[in-house]
Amino acid sequence: MADFRRKKLLYVFNVFFDVNQSGTIDGKDFELAIEKVCKLRGWASGTPQYKRMYDSLIQIWDGLRNKADSNEDGQVSIDEWYLMWDDFAKTPDKPLEWQTQYLKFMFDLEDSSGDGAIDVEEFAGVCSCYGLEVAECRKAFQKMSDGKPNVTYEQFQNLWKQYFISENPSDPGNFIFGKTNF
Ligand SMILES: [Ca+2]
Ligand SMILES: [Ca+2]
Description:
It contains eight helices and two strands, in the order αααααβααβα. The chain has helices spanning 3-17, 27-41, 48-68, 78-90, 97-110, 120-129, 134-145, 153-165; strands spanning 117-118, 151-152. It has one domain: EF-hand (Recoverin, domain 1). The two termini are 15 Å apart. The chain is globular. Bound molecules: calcium ion (2 copies). One calcium ion binds next to loops.
């Protein structure tokens, strides 16, 4: 796998999945992610929105673990992570179910107004809740949207695919997780 693609995969692993920075992904990371995004949205535990968020992230974790945890230790290591995305790159039109669920989850989370498109404020709001600098998120949005004010779901799906398979640093899909260079 090319170094550039490996760096992108490592970045998503570290920032969006291994939330407690333990070096592997497991259920605890997802529980922290649930707290993080519900706090961002102002959803208290016990509310229907909290429950929906909880259910969809736990379902994503179950799907990820089932496919990627090949040594069955209950955790997804960085090597297991690389292996799974290397398989994805071979047949990007046949994603795993959890991968599609996560793509949709991220889009819906970012589209906080629910109008079917992401704008720069929505994008920066979510990325900064994962600890990224707002200024860099804004720059990343300009690059991924090619200077346009919005990114639709259809566009996002293509950018997403590009993120995980592209080895060309100038492709717009490289910027969908808020980082401008690798
Ligand atoms: Ca972890
Ligand atoms: Ca494992």
